[in-house]
UniProtKB/TrEMBL annotation:
InterPro entries: 26S_Proteasome_ATPase, AAA+_ATPase, AAA_lid_3, ATPase_AAA_core, ATPase_AAA_CS, P-loop_NTPase. Residues 1-156 form the AAA+ ATPase domain. Keywords: ATP-binding, Coiled coil, Nucleotide-binding. GO terms for molecular function: ATP binding; ATP hydrolysis activity. Belongs to the AAA ATPase family. This is PRS10 protein. The gene is Psmc6.
C-alpha cells in the first residue's frame, strides 16, 4: 500500500490519447446503470473503477453492470478501464459461502467472460491494481486476460528523497532543511508515509505556534511515523 499504483495509472492517462471509463458508486439507476461517461485523458484526475463499488445487493445487478461497462468501453474505443482494488471481486472462487459470496463469484465470472470471451475487446485495455495479488483467482491472472504483472516495490533512498522534496515543496519552511538526514531515518517508507511526514511536521509547527516548519519539526515527524510503522503488521507472499 502507498507505493503509487494509482498515481502510475494517472501517469498513463496523461500520456495516452484515449478514454478512461469510471463507475460512479452510489448513483441512482439510469439507462446506463451506474456506468458514467468516459473522461478525456487530459483531465488531471483519473476516473477509475473501484471494484468494491461494483458489488450490488441485488442478484444479477453486479454482472449487468460489468456487461454495460464493457459495452460502453467498446462503443468509445480506444478506451482504458482502470479497476482499483480488484481483490474486492477477483478473489479465488470456492464452492461454499453465503449468498453475497456467490454474487461476487458471479460478478467475477462475468468479468472473466468480458475480458476474454466470445466478443473481442479490440482497442479496450484493462489496468488493475491490488495490494493482495496472492488472493486473486488464477483464471484472472492467466495470459490473454492480464498479460503483464508489474510489482511496485518500495522506493529506494534516492526515490524517497525525490518524493519527500515534492511533498515538502508547498510547505512554508524556515532555515535550511536537510532532506538527506530526514530520508536516512525513513527506511521502509512508501510514498504515502513520506507525505505523512510532511503532514506531521506541519502539526508539530502548529503546536509550537509557528507559521513555518523547521528542520526539527521534520525530524520529530519522521521519528513519529517510523514508530507508528513498527506497529503495522506485514504480509509476505510470493509474487504472482
Amino acid at each position: 500500500p502507498g507505493t503509487g499504483k494509482t498515481l502510475l495509472a494517472r501517469a498513463v492517462a496523461s500520456q495516452l490519447d484515449c478514454n478512461f471509463l469510471k463507475v460512479c458508486s452510489g448513483t441512482a439507476p439510469t439507462p446506463m446503470g451506474s456506468v458514467c461517461s468516459p473522461a478525456s485523458s487530459s483531465s488531471s484526475v483519473l476516473p477509475k473503477v473501484v471494484s468494491s463499488s461494483i458489488v450490488d445487493k441485488y442478484i444479477g445487478e453486479s454482472a449487468r453492470l460489468i456487461r454495460e461497462m464493457f459495452n460502453y468501453a467498446r462503443d468509445h474505443q480506444p478506451c482504458i478501464i482502470f479497476m482499483d482494488e480488484i481483490d474486492a471481486i477477483g478473489g479465488r472462487r470456492f464452492s461454499e459461502g453465503t449468498s453475497a459470496d456467490r454474487e461476487i463469484q458471479r460478478t467475477l465470472m462475468e468479468l472473466l467472460n468480458q475480458m476474454d470471451g466470445f466478443d473481442t475487446l479490440h482497442r479496450v485495455k484493462m489496468i488493475m491494481a491490488t495490494n493482495r495479488p496472492d488472493t486473486l483467482d488464477p483464471a484472472l491472472l492467466r495470459p490473454g486476460r492480464l498479460d503483464r504483472k508489474i510489482h511496485i516495490d518500495l522506493p529506494n533512498e534516492q526515490a524517497r528523497l525525490d518524493i519527500l522534496k515534492i511533498h515538502a515543496g508547498p510547505i512554508t519552511k524556515h532555515g535550511e532543511i536537510d532532506y538527506e538526514a530526514i530520508v536516512k531515518l525513513s527506511d521502509g517508507f512508501n510514498g504515502a508515509d513520506l507525505r505523512n511526514v510532511c503532514t506531521e511536521a506541519g502539526m508539530f509547527a502548529i503546536r509550537a505556534d509557528h507559521d513555518f516548519v523547521v528542520q526539527e519539526d521534520f525530524m520529530k515527524a519522521v521519528r513519529k511515523v517510523a514508530d507508528s510503522k513498527k506497529l503495522e503488521s506485514k504480509l509476505d507472499y510470493k509474487p504472482v
